[in-house]
Every structure is written in C-alpha cells, then in structure tokens.
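Researcher: Last one for today. Full complex below.
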Amino acid sequence: MKRPTIADIAQRAGVSKGAVSYALNGQPGVSEATRKRIVAIAQEIGFNPNSAARALSGATAKAVGLTLCRPARILSIEPFFMGLISGFEAELAARSYALTLQVVATPENEVEVYRRWWGERRVDGVFVSDLRDDDVRIPVLQTLRLPAVVIGGPGDTGSITQVWSDDAGAVAEAVRYLVALGHRRIARVGGLPDLLHTQSRTRAFTDVCMALGLETAVTVPSDYTGEEGGRATRRLLIGAERPTAIIYDNDVMAVAGLAVAQEMGIRVPADLSIVAWDDSPLCSLVHPSLTALSRDISEYGAQAARQLLAAVDGEQVTSVEAGTAHLTPRGSTAPPRTR
Amino acid sequence: MKRPTIADIAQRAGVSKGAVSYALNGQPGVSEATRKRIVAIAQEIGFNPNSAARALSGATAKAVGLTLCRPARILSIEPFFMGLISGFEAELAARSYALTLQVVATPENEVEVYRRWWGERRVDGVFVSDLRDDDVRIPVLQTLRLPAVVIGGPGDTGSITQVWSDDAGAVAEAVRYLVALGHRRIARVGGLPDLLHTQSRTRAFTDVCMALGLETAVTVPSDYTGEEGGRATRRLLIGAERPTAIIYDNDVMAVAGLAVAQEMGIRVPADLSIVAWDDSPLCSLVHPSLTALSRDISEYGAQAARQLLAAVDGEQVTSVEAGTAHLTPRGSTAPPRTR
DNA sequence: CTGTAACACTTAACCGATCAAGTCATGGCG
DNA sequence: CGCCATGACTTGATCGGTTAAGTGTTACAG
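Model: Here's the assembly. Have a good evening.
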C-alpha cells in the first residue's frame, strides 16, 4: 500500500505542495475554503505526514527518549518504571509525541545512547532517572544542548530542570508515625547507595531519628531486588538489637522482608512493623497488607513529561516539586509489643 | 552544538558527499585508503547519520513499535511486559534499532497508532501482543503491509508470523503434577477471557482435567489484577466444593490468592496448593514461595525481536514456538490433606 | 485611472542522507 | 596506438516535507 504524501493531496486538490503544507499546519496563506477542501482530502485518503521528512526540514522529531539503566530482572518487577512510563504517555500521546525506550547496562552506555540519539536527531529530549553523584550524563546533555528533565533529585544538575519529590519529608512522616506508635528501634533497608535520592533519604532518615532522640538509625544498603531486600532483613533481624520496625526503600524489598520475617516466625505487625516506599498493588496484595508511603507515580511521570515538552518547546522551565509521598497505614504497622 | 553531517566530513576529507556515503556504508566506489581516512574523520567528529534523512531516502526508520493495551495499574505490576521489553532490547540494541512504545486504551486505538506510525514512517515493524478473537489489528496490518510479529497465539493471523509458547502443554504439566500429588478438585483463575491465549489455556485445562477423570474443571475468569484474582479466589474458597488446588494465569493473581487464603485461615500448602503462571521474582518473594510455570520471558521477547527484524529485512519468516513453560515446584504445592 | 496593499496562491531552495549515472585517469590488450 | 574495461571518484536527482521569496489577482484609496 502506497503511503499518501502531500504531493498526492496537492494533485487531487489542484494546488501546489506548499499550499497543502500551509493548509494542514494552520498557517496563513490559503483561503478558508481551500483549507477545508485540503483537510477533507487528507482525511479521506488517510494522510499522515512522514515524520522523517518533517524532522529533516528542521522541525522536531516528535519523539522523546528514556533510557533505563537497571538489570532486566529488577526492571521486570519494579512497578515504579511502568507507572512512570504510563504517566509519560498520558502527556506525550496528547501531543502525539512518541516515547523511545532503551535498556542499557551502564551509565556510560546511557551517555552513548544520548549521543547517538542526538546525532541521529531521533529524539527532541530525554528523561533522566536514577541520578548519581557527579552524574556523567549531566555535562554531556549540557554540551549537546539536548533538552532533558531529571526525575528525582534534588541534586546538582546545573541548567537541567528536575522533577523531584520531597523524600526527606516522607521519610520524616514515616519515622514520626512509627515513633508515635511507640517504636524506638527503627531500621531502614535502602536502595542503591550510589543513587542520589537514596543518599538524601538516608540523610533525612538519620537526621529525623536523631532529632527524635532514637538510639539508633541503621540503614542497610541494598539494590531494590527482593533477594537483597530479604537478605538485608535477615541480617537486621538476627542482630542483637533487633529493630521493631523497618522502612524499605521500595515495595519489592518490603514484600521480601515480610516473607523473611514470617519464615523466621517473627509476626508482623506484632513483633515487627513494616513500611514500604512506593505503594503499588503489591502492597495490598500480601498478607498482612503493607503500610506504604504512597505517591501518584503516574502523575509524577506526567509532570516530568510536561516539563520536558516545555523544555523542547524552548520555554524557560524551572524545577518543580511533585507531590510528596504520604503514609497509607495498613496492616503491617502496629505498636511494638512491650516486654 | 552543531550536529556534524556527511557534508562536514566530505569537506574535511576533500571528497564529495557521495564518496563519504559509500565509505561509511561499506559500499564499493572508494579506495581503501580514502575509506579509512573518512571513517577516521567520522569517528573524530562524532558523526551519527541523521536518522530522518536516512529514513527519507527510502531506507528504514531503524525503529520498531510496541503498543500496550492494558490499564496502567495492571501494567505497573505485571512483570511480563518489562521482561518482554528487555528481551526485545537485547536483539534490537545489537542492530541499533530503537523501540517506540505507546500505551493505549483500546484495541481500536492500537489500530490508529499503527496507521499513524505507518503513515509517518516512524517504525519498520510492530510487535502485537494480547491477541483476541477476530482481532481487528490483523487485517489492518495486512493491508498496510506493516511487518509484524504476534506474540502469543497460536491463532488465526493469516500471513503474520507468530511467536507462541505451548500453553496447552504447560497447563497439562501443572494439572498432571497436582493430580500426581493426589489432588482431585483443581480450579483455575484465568486471565482476560477475550484474549486468545486465555481461551486456549481454558480449553487445555478442561481437556486435561476430563482426560484425567477429574470431577470438575472450573475456570473463573479474571483480569490479571491482584484485586480480581483475590476476589475470584475468595469465591472459589467459600464454595461448597472447595478446590484443593488453584492454578492462576499470572503471578500477581497467585500472590493475591495466597493472601486471601491466609486471611481466611486456609493454610498453604496444607489445605490449598497454588500454582502461578509466569515465574517472576514475586513468586519466590512471598511465603510460602509459589510453585510456578516458569519460562524465560526475556528469551521469548528476544525471539520475537529476531523474527520481527527478519520480517523487516524482507526475509520469509515462519511462526516459531518459543520454549514451553515448565513447572518449578516450590513451597506452595503439596499433597492435599486426607480427611 | 493608477498605485499599492492584501490575499491566495506557486516556485524553488533546503534539510541530510542515498544511489544511479556520468566523468576522468589509468592500465591492459590486440 | 587505439580501444575498452576498471577503479575512484563526482554530479545531481531523489525522498517528503517546510518556508522564504516570487507572482498574479482583486479591492480600494487617492
């Protein structure tokens, strides 16, 4: 089947290619009558402008990119990214931007992909997630002048805007809640330690625990996988000073932690309270259901997409704070048993 | 920063654009010495061919598309798609094809997206998942002559090739295993009933149960969500003829079913055995860990990607069967308690 | 009645590649 | 020596849009 081009429309309408272009793009230069006729013909023959030709004549690629730099086995179960992606889509689809996805192995690979995309003019902008200390991607994006939005932070990203959520506030809310229930020994199983948002959560966790006069504020680093989360939990639970509550940096690790506790005969929530970060259906699926720090991840993604599209349009954009995660109490938290 | 073009290279090397094109594409028409010089310059200035210009001059878009037609809340937790996507990427990245993703609401929307992509020449081919009865997408793809690979089946897809796994064999293996353990009342919580592979699983389940002389072979339809899976489980467990084993069409529903059973005081596996379909980390995370029908979803995706790329290359491709899912026994299955 | 401005177009250059066709030097052969 | 084949390029058309500049018609002011 031959793809219709503007030349076909022009021929049918008896006008020039230029006129068709003006008509379809809402530019002045054609009469209202002609415009209507042209639009009708375009409709009829199912015309879609060739994106390559458009991109070639200086216009935009009408696509943005996202690289994911986590092992496949983490991605497959981590609900966060799919939530984010569907949030992106909501905004992108409305402006018929496509989302180009690439799974990569290392941050260096991510940089290569950015360079290639930019060189190929394949995308008009990119989403950047999982910000690290002195992230190698930031300077590259700046020299390429490739519009970008960093998801998560806040961190030092120079001229690149960020969409971030107040993790410090959320962690404080969780700790305060647990303390209000009577907990005095609260531990945390953190995410990948080289990610910036993990660091800011760790700092906030330590700070608020100290501020509330708790004895300890142990954070065990982990990697968001269930296995590691379970292992970290086991390590915490066999220690001498067993915590009465654990906060996990994602839901997958929290579920794994719950399983470990049950396996060890430690009852949740009687002997151990559990708080998950990021509330996916997973948290309400398990028994007992998990108290979680919920936030609207799709909306988070939508907000990032709005920012990126604005940046692509050349608008001056500033970093914004997306909604803070809020505690959703469920069955996994209770006052600690007094001994 | 200005993007380097082949004209820049041509100028530097003191040759024409055409010569550069021949050199970089390994075509005859330039001497080995000149080719080396040109390649070196391209390397040096970090040249990437503009994908739009390439696509425009008849070449391919170097991108394939995937539409996902499930509500966001399902996608976010369903590990299947992310596994599939990372499998795609493995093959696509090797040939530097990009993956374009779009989340849509209905199969009709999917058709629109295909039409648009095709008209825009944005993709060279598409993955088709979640095949339905008399799927509206198939005839459209055929008239558009848009290369495609159907994931899942087998079904009637005319000239479009499929990558499918032997669900009937897998369901038979699960049922035989449960029967060998001594189960006589086995139920199943199925996926979306209008999906073709759900239907073939249902048929196979009924057939094998009948063949083995079981009294019943109840399938409760569901929608892959945890909530529905839990509800279906509850319905099954409060019935007069309570099953001693349940097979779930995905892992999320199985986990939900486990939670429901525990909540009702029904012990797993003593009172109820559970088998999940598709083995994600989720299955080993919960307690007891779930016996599952495992298959290598990434490899499944990789195989589909290989097929699609071959189809894009114009090769004659035939439908292939990906590896059958095999039973991975874990803690959620045991002989039923004799009364 | 003329000058000119506004409108409704057309023409053609351009984006950055690919590729068929043409050019030019060189070498081998009868 | 002339002829043809070959290699190593160059030239220029082409893909399908966008857009600046040009053209022809009409309307209206002076």
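The longest helix of chain B spans residues 79-94. DSSP finds 14 helices and twelve strands in chain B.
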